[in-house]
Amino acid sequence: MVHPFCNDLIATFKIENMQIHKQALEMGKVEDSQVNKEAGNSRRNFIRYSVAAGAGSLLGASLLTGKINAEESDGEKVKVLTTDGRLVEVEKGHLCCEPVSHEVARHGIGNKKMVMVIDLSKCRNARECVKGCQKMHYLPEDIEWIKLFLMRDNEDTGPYWFPKPCLHCNNPPCVKVCPVGATFKRSDGIVLIDNDRCIGCKFCMAACPYSSRVFNWKEPKIEPHELDKNYSPENSTPGKVGTVGKCDFCPDMVRQGKLPSCVTSCPNGVFYYGDENLDTVTNGSETLRFKKLLNDRTAYRFMEELGTEPSVYYLPPTNRLFDYKVGFNDISEEEIALYKKEARIED
Ligand code: SF4
Ligand code: SF4
């Protein structure tokens, strides 16, 4: 519970920020980089900037209502009483919000179109995105909703690391083949799965040209407090054995004004996430104009010749920050050999 006085302070601070950013952007008197500098390097830039650009309501609501912010909790644990009388320790960040109903989860968050931009020049196979996603969604270690590949376009170019989540296609083949309507596309562009409805037929896995979907063979690593939560397709937890899962673009985090776990986990700022309708994306450190970024860096969409219209854009791996071999640190010889084989790299 936030003291009313603190709420007033937060509200005043946000309104001032909103006015400064909005005026600056509308007048075109500042470059995006200046906005970034002024806004600082806080991971909360996304919330601040979104409010500034007029996005306001949902993204700003979590601060004003005093709900606990996972990024601010910094892993801090608190004790809570479960409905069956057990005392359990949970991370503060997981206490924030009740999952939304199945009906609400099907509609999407109003007036938004979520997009992701992945900067291939910065990726070094740190794999923190994979771990962050697994932790957030209680996935077993061998289930990855975001996968990392070593890619090489042709013999004249060097290898580079390529993270691949679900691409949240605007024309998703996976949705068209589901016989029970368990997987669906929302108004905000996010493709989700309702695991209460999924019958595990795997048609969607066969239809996805990006192999983004995985079958839940095992029980998820659910923490005790999660067992008491209602399931919602929007937070995808607790997962269910015998159904299909995939990257969900963390819509529950968006609803709270936070960034997806892969974005906040990445130490190199590879992932930018945001709202196409606001023409804004952020990696938590810098906030940029979405379309300008795509133009300036000649972005592309993976296998877009298929007509799937992905919501994930890639910035080509020009002027790479790391040699691809940096990505071989901390992985086994066996894995290195596999990566090399897939990228057709000779020793
Ligand atoms: S990447 Fe695959 S699972 Fe994701 S929306 Fe596109 S077709 Fe569906
Ligand atoms: S596995 Fe589930 S989500 Fe996929 S097509 Fe079958 S019922 Fe639909």
What does this molecule look like?
The protein is an alpha+beta fold and 347 residues long. It folds into two domains: 1-66, no CATH class; 97-342, Alpha-Beta Plaits. 30% of the residues lie in helices and 15% in strands. It contains 13 helices and 13 strands. It has helices spanning 4-27, 32-39, 45-52, 57-64, 70-73, 102-107, 128-137, 173-177, 203-207, 251-255, 261-265, 290-296, 333-342, and strands at residues 77-81, 87-91, 114-119, 147-151, 160-164, 183-185, 191-193, 214-215, 244-245, 271-275, 280-282, 287-289, 312-315. The protein has a five-stranded mixed beta sheet. Helix 1 (4-27) packs across helix 3. The longest helix has 24 residues, at 4-27. The chain is globular and about 60 Å long. The N and C termini lie far apart (59 Å). The structure holds iron/sulfur cluster (SF4) (2 copies). One iron/sulfur cluster is lined by residues 166-169, 172-174, 191, 208, 210, 212-213, 246, 308. One iron/sulfur cluster binds at residues 166-169, 172-174, 191, 208, 210, 212-213, 246, 308.
Short summary:
The strands form five sheets. The protein has a five-stranded mixed β-sheet. Strands 1-2 form a two-stranded antiparallel sheet. Strands 4-5 form a two-stranded antiparallel sheet. It folds into two domains: 1-66, no CATH class; 97-342, Alpha-Beta Plaits (2-Layer Sandwich).
* Lateral arrangement of strands in the main beta sheet: 12-11-10-3-13
Hetero ligands: iron/sulfur cluster
The gross shape turns out to be globular
- What class would the helix/strand composition place it in? alpha+beta
The count of helical stretches stands at 13
What is the CATH C-level name of the largest domain? Alpha Beta
The major sheet is characterized as: 5 strands, mixed
Helix content: 25-40%
